[in-house]
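Page 42, continued from yesterday. The earlier attempt failed because a stray header line got pasted into the input along with the sequence. Redoing it now with the clean sequence only.
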Amino acid sequence: MADDLYGALGVSRTADQKEIRRAYREKARKFHPDVNKTPGAEETFKRISEAHDVLSDPETRAQYDRFGENFRQYAAADAAHSTSGRRRGGGTRYTRGGTGAQNVNWEDLFGGGFGGFGRGVDHSAELELTVEEAYRGGKRTVQIGSPFGGAREYVIDIPAGALDGQRLRIPGAGGAGADGQDGDLLVTLRVKDSKRYRLDGANIETDLPIAPWEAALGADVNMPTPGGSVTVHVPPGSSTGRRLRLRGQGMPRRGQPGDLYARVKVDVPRTLTKKEKELFEKLRDVSSFDARRGS
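This time it went through. Structure tokens are written below.
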């Protein structure tokens, strides 16, 4: 039929990807709203953009060929009866090392007034990382969905020492451009605090539990960090809340790495042996220390 997606692009149902892309670019140049102000041009541009987005993805094209214009509903119903559990639909999604898809913000093909003529618009997504993952860096898979259905996956390289709010650019992974220059995908990294570590710029903060006698007498204790175990010197007389600075043990950076701050947390035994109780009672009796003095 003339109004189907193939007809919108003016290609046959056997057209290959090169023909589809070439037809899209030719029609996009003709009907782009920035250059064509005639009534209906904008709707035509939307239609050919939808056609390109659906037919350029082998999976959504196969669904369209099978179910026709209502392929999204039929494909969703078909998927509901399968065991794949694969979710489809609008919106940009990302996966983090196979942990499943989560919603993030996305800019569709028509964002920002259709972008500049010729060049495809940039798409955006967010990727959550723990402090440990940001410290190590490595490869992550980002899955970008389309407002018309379908998805593409991109493997991005997270630099070691990535910071919250840092943006990574994947050239050519955004919206298709009418002149052959596709937009980019901009991935914003969101580094979330974990139970053990908190991020403050390039510095890392963590709690350091110590025993009462270590706090009073001082001690050298082992402590885990994202870069491995280190030995920390606890000065005598350290109370809860004291911050111990480990220079250069924060997020790795080119030039000056961040620091790691260990916040002392004095823990007491929940239960005492008979001997321990006797010793604490003796300390109570001989000590003149008043923890509430001056408070």
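Notes: Residues 81-116 have pLDDT under 50 and may be disordered.
Reminder to self: strip header lines before submitting.
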